[in-house]
Each structure stands twice: as C-alpha cells, then as structure tokens.
Amino acid sequence: MIASDAVLVEAPDFAGVIEAWRVWRVVAGKDGYTLGSVIKPTLWPPREPLVAECLCSSPVVTWFRRKRSPHEIPDERCECGIYAASLPTVGQYLRDPPANLAVARVLGQVSLWGRVVECERGYRASHAYPLRLFVPVDSSVHRRHRWRALVHGLDAYGVPVEALPARCAEAARVLEREQLASSRHADGL
Questions:
Q1: Could you give all domains of the chain from N- to C-terminal order, each with its CATH number?
Q2: Considering the entire predicted model, what is its pTM?
Q3: Burial class of 61 by CB neighbour count within 10 A (0 to 12, 13 to 18, 19+)
C-alpha cells in the first residue's frame, strides 16, 4: 500500500565527493592571490566552497541565444557548473599563456560535490573546492609573481601547495606519471 503523501526521492548519481583535476588562472589583488576560472570571470574564494551559478543567462550570452529558464545547477541541458576532468584533458589549458588579468596558471585536484553531472570530457558540479595545488616552474610570465611567491601566496586556500619542477606544457604528463608510479608502489608492483 502506498501512502498518498509519499514523496519521490531521487537518488544521486554519485555518493560523496568526486576528485578530479582542473587548471586555474591566478589573479593578484590587494589581499594576495586568488584562483579563478580559465574560461569564465569566476573567482574562487579562499577557505569556502565555490557554489556554481548559471552564467548562461548573462546579458552577453543571452544576446547570442535564448535566455534559459531557472534550473538546477548543473543542468544536463545547459553548460553551467564547475568543471573538472582527468589530467590529460585539463593539460591543454596549461598550454596558452595566462589571460584575463591572470598573473599565472596553476594545476590541481579539486573536490566536487552536490549535484554532479558527468559530461563528455569530465564533470560539472554545483559545489567545489581545491584539494591540492601544483605551481609549474613557468606558471607566471610576470617578474613580480615568481614561482615561490605563488606557492606561498596560494597557502590562503588552506590546502597543500607544491612547486612542480616542470614546465606548464609538461605538468599534466609529469603528474600523471607520478600518480601511476605511486599507484604501482601502493599495489606492490
């Protein structure tokens, strides 16, 4: 017998946190360094999760396509959400020089949670926060924002920040090899 006041509960596709990789641009401000999206104007606040918003309804985007009605974020029919993927996939974002007021680019692991949608090249999530950050040796093109200054400045996020003795172009491959070696060692191979 089914009660008339029964509520349909949708089970999540993923239980818990998903760990993936992403690239951030680093922006210098009066309060230090801030992580930002490499594509959108979004800045990641230190010591608090980033909560996704649908940026597809912005005036610039609306000019190009119909305005979307309010929806869950991320939505499968939209491009919204916080993106993350595998190391080989995100490595391409390290190849171009920093842009959008950025002083550097960094690579790292990120925790995704809340509503998470698996997409063609990775994931889109409603909530995220960095787990670990890696600063490649040539991450900055500016003399004032050197490798070591970036490593120390990104401590504001309260996560491990490591100097990576590899150039941006090789950073994803270097980390992928380290991960493979580490998993082989853990498996006793």
A1: 18-48+87-115+128-186 (3.40.20)
A2: 0.81
A3: middle
